[in-house]
Amino acid sequence: MQVEKHQDISVNLCRFFLKNIGLWTAEDLAEERKRKVMIAYTIWCTTLALVVTLRDLYFTWIYNGDILYVLTNCLSAATACGKVYILLLHKVEFIDLIVYMREKFWNSSYDLEEREILDNSRKTCIFFVSSVTTIGMCVMLSYIATPFVTSRASNESERMLIFNMWLNIPISVPPNYELLLLLQVVTLYHIGICYFCVDNIFCMLAIHLTAQFRILQHRFTKLCDMDYEMSEKDQKLTLRNHTDRCYRKLNGYVRQHQALIEFSKKLENVYTMISFLQVLIFSVLICLFGYQILLADAPAARRTIFILLLIGAMFLLFMFTYSCGDVIEQSNGVAVGAYSTLWAITSMNNSGKMLRKDLIMVIARSRQVCCLTANGFFPVSLETYTSILSTAVSYFTLIKSHIEDVT
Fold it and tell me: What is the pLDDT of residue 4?
């Protein structure tokens, strides 16, 4: 079958933003040098954003400002920095995963049913990646527009920055204001794309891994199907020869299963700390986003930011946990595919006996499901999503009760 190059909007978006932070494959030395420069620039931007938000948190605490608003910004910046720093520590393994997906998943030969499975996975990736990216860009634009909208609404002549800098210089006068605003916009852009592009590429890796598990299930199901495996001129093959042929094919499928398990382990190794970070912080972030929307005395422009952030956080978390849960479900489904093989019609020669034994081994190994964990503490799935939301609601209720008691 003719190999078709994989191109769709989800791949293009992931490639564009990951190149912006220096975490995409390099085809030559020039691209490798450019990638190193972008990595250094990403580290500088994210570190600067973290320092600015931490200083803002410190001075806001001293001067009794809106501490929860600043804490929300600080946690959001810390989450983005944590994701990209962890990924940089596993840069070689991460690039290897992308290369393997491109060479083995996207550019392999498939029949019509397998191609349909792959196309459905691509559609899922397009939906998730496009939605999360769109929300993320809207959040960044809202942050940039907020100081201008707020100043105009309150009729204030003093110009505002996106985030408080707490510097001993006149900020609102040119060119200080323009330079600081440009610096904040550039930094905000990098923090924003680090916040969602790490999860976008994870979604692609995990969902295409589940597609390969589905394809393997399909191949196991059709392994001994004589109508499926044999062309018209092969109809005269004896049952014994057919069994030998099925056993040879089974060896290839077992090697494919082993490769998918190894890919899953590498993905787990790269993303396990990121999963733990997200589970740990997202319940607090969702609670704080809800507080800024419903309880805080904030301008309408700021509320718009946190409405978008809340929608984005819940959608991104759903994308992440859905991808992890699908890996568990489909890796376990390989056992069903192996058992569904028409092994009963094969002969009881040496190949037939070995085929049955190997199928039992495949079923036993598939019951040890591939899962992506939060630093090994527990597997991440859609149940994790509901637990995080439940915890966020509990935190929000505590804050609301405390505010009502104070007032």
Answer: 42
Nearest to 191 by CA among 277, 75, 275, 56: 75
Helices (H), 21-159: 29-62, 67-89, 91-100, 112-154
3-state secondary structure of 373: strand
Residues 6+ apart with CB under 8 A from 1: 109, 110, 111
Helix (H, G, I), strand (E, B) or coil at 19: helix
Report residue 203 as tokens: 């979604």
Total residue length of the chain: 407
Whole-angstrom Cα distance, residue 276 to residue 389? Answer: 15
Q: How far is CA 75 from CA 130, 199, 204, 278, in A?
A: 24, 17, 26, 11
| Integer Cα distance of 341 and 250 in angstroms | 10
The two structure tokens encoding residue 200: 């976008």
> 221 with 343: CB under 8 angstroms?
no
- Residues 299 and 153 sit within 8 Å (Cβ to Cβ): yes
343, 224 Cβ separation under 8 angstroms: yes
Phi, psi (deg, nearest 5) at residue 347:
-75, 165
Question: Is residue 208 within 8 Å of residue 14, measured between CB atoms?
Answer: no
Q: How many CB atoms are located within 10 Å of the residue 281 CB? A: 17
Q: Are 132 and 16 in contact (CB under 8 A)?
A: no
Higher pLDDT, 154 or 61: 61
Q: Which of 198, 202, 219, 195 is nearest to 143 (CA)?
A: 195
Residue range 263-319, pLDDT digits in tens? 999 999 999 999 999 988 999 999 999 888 888 777 788 888 899 999 999 999 999
Closest CA to 106 of 239, 10, 243: 10
Question: Phi, psi (5° rounding) for residue 270?
Answer: -75, -40
Kindly give, in sequence order, each residue whose CB lies less than 8 Å from that of residue 89, ignoring residues fewer than 6 positions away: none
Mean pLDDT calculated for residue range 339-354: 79
Written as one letter, the residue type at 68 is: L
The tokens for 94 are 């991460």
pLDDT in tens, 72-99: 999 999 999 999 999 999 999 999 999 9
Q: What is the pLDDT of residues 374-387, one digit of tens each?
A: 988 999 999 999 99
**Side-chain half-sphere of 387: how many Cα atoms within 13 Å?**
12
Q: How do residues 322-344 score in pLDDT, each as one tens digit?
A: 999 999 999 999 998 888 887 77
Phi, psi (rounded to 5 degrees) for 240: -65, -45
